[in-house]
Amino acid sequence: MATKKSAKKSTTPPSKRWSAKVTTDSTKPSPGIFKKPAKAIAADLTKKSVSPKGPGQAMQMLSFYENRGGKNLSPARKKALDNAKDLIRAKEGKPSAKKSAKKAVKKLAKKAAKKTAKKTTKKASR
Known about the structure:
Elements: H1 38-45, H2 55-69, H3 75-92, H4 97-125
Helix pairs in contact: 1-3, 2-3
């Protein structure tokens, strides 16, 4: 039976990592916020005291946390973070990425159907 390989540990000291060089003018979210459910994450990050520049800044903090966590985030935690992103997008008034992707696919399918319909009508009229 093959054993599962664990994630590779970084040999780079924490002070030399890319995330150590990140500076932000935002206030820090409350400790442990990213371990809460999606609604609580979205509500806390969109507060004016945490994200003075609005929901876009909240989205940046959430993305930073997700990118920083990388492979160490469990699938359940990733799903909660994605749901929190969708809630923040809803507060911004933007459609979620999943919904807009579905709309784009439907639009492309309609265009393709129209093209094939035009070709068949042209052939039929000849």
